[in-house]
Design brief:
The structure is a homohexamer of 233-residue chains. Chain A has 233 residues and is of the alpha/beta class. The first copy, chain A, has two domains: 105 residues, Rossmann fold (3-Layer(aba) Sandwich), CATH 3.40.50; 105 residues, Rossmann fold (3-Layer(aba) Sandwich). In chain A, 45% of the residues lie in helices and 15% in strands. The first copy, chain A, has nine helices and eight strands. In chain A, the strands form two sheets. Chain A has a four-stranded parallel beta sheet with strand order 2-1-3-4, with helices on both faces. A four-stranded parallel beta sheet of chain A has the order 6-5-7-8, sandwiched between helices. In chain A, helix 3 links the parallel strand 3 and strand 4. In chain A, helix 4 packs across helix 9. Chain A is globular and about 55 Å long. Chains in contact: A-B, A-C, A-E, A-F, B-C, B-D, B-F, C-D, C-E, D-E, D-F, E-F.
């Protein structure tokens, strides 16, 4: 089985971090490749950035289809392009926000999302609502650290830990989803510090797409996600 | 006051039709210009088409800001890019699906949308849900005519009329929104044939943006719709 | 075009304040008249007050139809009588709570309402819910000042400003709707103090009704809002 | 215990029918009186009719408080004035739509409402939604018989029965609420004809108000339903 | 009329307390018996405890049918087994959480639940949501006292009172439901201390079941709540 | 990795069918065992049957913990006991209704469930609603075949196929979930007959639990799903 993980932003160091985490999670025999489009924004921090990366994501997915990948993960927490990608893909496509929500809802009756900047919380809340998890996902919090500063900023992990502890206390969160692919390396440390399940969407996404493929499931081509129509000129 | 209407697809004849209808609706003293990006799909019939037109729409909006337009209408029924456009725009931005829903909800307690192809109904239902009109908008029906065939297909208007009559009977619709900018010239005829208010999103959108501007209102720049962040390189 | 604004309470000074703000907002060529019924409560602060003013509002609307007004605004934040008025009216009818919500939802993904007394917040929340804006309108706050004290009470504007600032911080509000027609003169000052869009329902209502009329739209007479039935005696 | 049933319309024969049914249902020792305001519409068939009866209903309730009634039932299916009445009442107040919904939700997981005219279904759906029963109450159907024709029209009961059978088949209704106080005498016959519980809001309302009083419960005067404020003149 | 109250846990002293309160509330002529299954958990504090008591509850209900009870109350705040009981019961069945919610929603537009342990709040919130009261029931709070310590713990009542006062202030609660059958003896004291209606589900449940029986209503046997199917062996 | 599948009913032939399908779906190295409790109902067709099987399911899960299984699937479409099981389990627990819904929501924007008897549809709809998939899962249909007749009844598969085709046409379903573990062997045939993804909850459940385990995720023990409390005697 071959799974393609697409990091929508063009920051190669982040793609590497995602690749590492994605590769570790799958079953023997499953191959995971991680790519990013060449000329998208270096981070996705709002609707505009997402819009500027979507056609790049679609290019990667189109190449993926030629190379016969069995399934796809969109590794940005705003799940950029998952619906358009589904029109192109034969196998299943999941975003990491979506995957994180699916996983969390099985593990805890009440959880929260911890993301980067306040400006993206409304977008994430909108996704939560559209996916139907707005009852269980009781808050979307931002630690106010830009995506690319997650690594540069020395105390990022402590700020995230403290915000998770606050969320446990104030939101009664029983699990927490990390709301950015750039936090993917903090899972174990945060879990030991906070004693609640910490869900990383990249791991969840790769494993769940693998699961869907293994269960023999593919994107429905019956109507909405049928191949894009060829236009009369 | 200057309003810019952006037709996301690249079919110039449709832009002209939209322009005609948009211009007729505004107050004296309000100037409306209608444009389309040069190289987007010739019609928007799904998530993929929408994705392929969004950066073109953003280009037009950016030019609009330079030319100091007071407000914007996105004249495609999937409201492509309204959130990303709001990050760029100073004045209000509305999509024609959104505008149609706002208008219909004031005129009737129960209404429906009549659109082109079955493949876009799930997307429109998603918009209806996100905007909060899912209780009043009781159905999204498709007449199964591709966008560009609306003009070529001789009996399109009769099919639309019959579908509206069916919706009045079966859905108890008390008003109907036309779910495609290409149907904008059929309003009067359909209204006289069906005796319910027929709402065209283009007219509704232009007039409502004009209203918001006149009421002194602008897009909030407080957080979500603030200018896109400049990325460190 | 002629628009009639009906202030449901009988406080003439408030009617004058509303009239001033309503008149300033419309396009050239649009005439706005503002009236109040003669013997309704002096302020509407609860369901009972609203009930005691509704037949007076209907009297004014009936007179408005005789005088051939094109549309109507009900200028009280509990939108008293908008559904019963729609049975009498040919043109569109909007309440100022409704209009404020429509406007705010275009400008910001998350906003709040700032009203007068705690006793009316449940009623307003109910309207927000019925109109479908309960996801975007994240809180309804009361400054605990009775309607008629808004002018008498020297520091009303400062209390309102402080409450808005608190709402921006705690509710992450990106725009705020003023929840009383008596606050209509505070818009500019509050906007400059708080740096978020401040939405006044009167301005929004007058401009949106004007927009609907200009777009050629009328109340649906198909079923629910048909003329009241004449009763057999 | 003394319960006051208020029929909002001024048709005395209907008040008598309601009184008969209400009196039969209560425990020994409970006294029920049924009244109607003198000059309201002869039937309530829309928002306008409801608005024209609300102040009459409030007059009766005010008299009821002087006479120290323990609880109140508003015997019209649009529950006219229940919120304003609660500001005046010490004891509990229920509408018959509300009471029917509460009762039905205990008896069946899925039920419908059978009312008179199509023009009132949107209003009833709105009540169902506000009360929170929109998931269990899967349809509101109208037999298209005006309120006052329920008795005059010879085959009304057969039309209602047939519509109930259709609702069982098409809506999978497992119980049916009669959506008009004028249908109150048809319960037994309809139940034997259709074999599902038929719920009459008048009986349900009187018994449930009796239950609330017996349980020692009163309308909360903490905030929203506090006494109407006395206005400064 | 004979009503059977089933306390799902096996703590006899709690059964006695429930019996006392249930008996006081009904009309003359109504007989109430209170029982508990012999070998269920001594308190129900989670999904597991509830599961371990459900077949015991069903045994008691089955005996109740043989003895021809007219209706049933399940006197545990997680409403264990109400749906399975309805398959066995001829008359109406209510849980005390359900009954408390029905009662509260008539008395106040906004109320909360005060329960024992944090671990049961998610379960109660789920019930609130399924019954459709999630809009009016704005919070479920826990005082963090185990069920069986309610009596042993000297200051339980003061902790509950303080939590109610906090809920009035922070949640704007206008009524409060006691979220445990073991709090049933505190109603009067809490009501006098807090000045809002305090709703005990046992009283509410017994009175409402009595009301439904008096109104001639029974559990629908049309489909979902039909007798359990006899299995082929 | 070891996964335990628990068939709540005591029909061994069905357990075997489930085991076959479960075993085929997992990755190399994953061991799946399928068991059923010894004395539960032979099929689960309602709330009562579910209640009568839950303590048996919990017994199997308890044994599973002793044997150190990594995750659990409850293989009955009413997801009996998933919350109580989570209090006992260290690893993740999923029901097959839940798993089917998660999978379907990734593959299609609009899908339906095809189950056995009409009496279980309300229960399934309730699960759909609680899990948050009520917007995408647009209908729950029953073919009216008892569980144990699925194999005995010669034309069961044709009835199911025809019902799926009807659902595609009338509900616009783009994927269909099989609503009974006993249909698990029909997937390929139905998929080739109907051309939409057919989702079997057993396969989906086993693969998704495997995915969650592989992603390092466990049931949160923070509060709601903590070990059941030991009771004072």
């Amino acid at each position: 089985m071959k799974i393609l993980v697409i990091n929508p932003n063009s920051t190669v160091s982040m793609t590497r971090k995602i690749a590492k985490c994605a590769t570790e999670s799958v079953a023997e025999g499953t191959v995971v490749h991680t790519v990013n489009p060449p000329s998208t924004p270096t981070s996705i921090e709002g609707y505009y950035d997402a819009a500027m990366s979507e056609s790049g994501v679609l290019d990667e997915l189109r190449k993926g289809e030629v190379a016969r990948y069995d399934g796809y993960v969109i590794a940005c927490f705003d799940d950029v392009g998952i619906d358009s990608c589904r029109e192109l893909a034969t196998g299943p496509v999941m975003g990491i926000c979506e995957a994180g929500l699916h996983a969390a809802s099985v593990l805890a009756p009440r959880f929260t999302i911890m993301t980067t900047l306040p400006r993206v919380t409304a977008h994430i809340e909108d996704l939560v609502f559209r996916y139907g998890f707005n009852r269980k996902c009781v808050n979307v919090r931002a630690v106010d650290i830009p995506v690319l500063d997650l690594e540069r900023c020395g105390n990022a992990r402590h700020k995230i830990r403290d915000a998770i502890k606050q969320s446990i206390k104030e939101d009664h969160a029983e699990a927490v989803i990390l709301g950015c692919a750039g936090m993917t390396d903090l899972v174990s440390w945060l879990e030991s510090e906070t004693q609640v399940p910490i869900i990383d969407g990249v791991r969840a996404g790769v494993c769940m797409v693998e699961a869907l493929v293994r269960a023999g499931l593919r994107t429905s081509k019956a109507c909405t996600y049928a191949e894009p129509r060829v236009k009369p000129q």
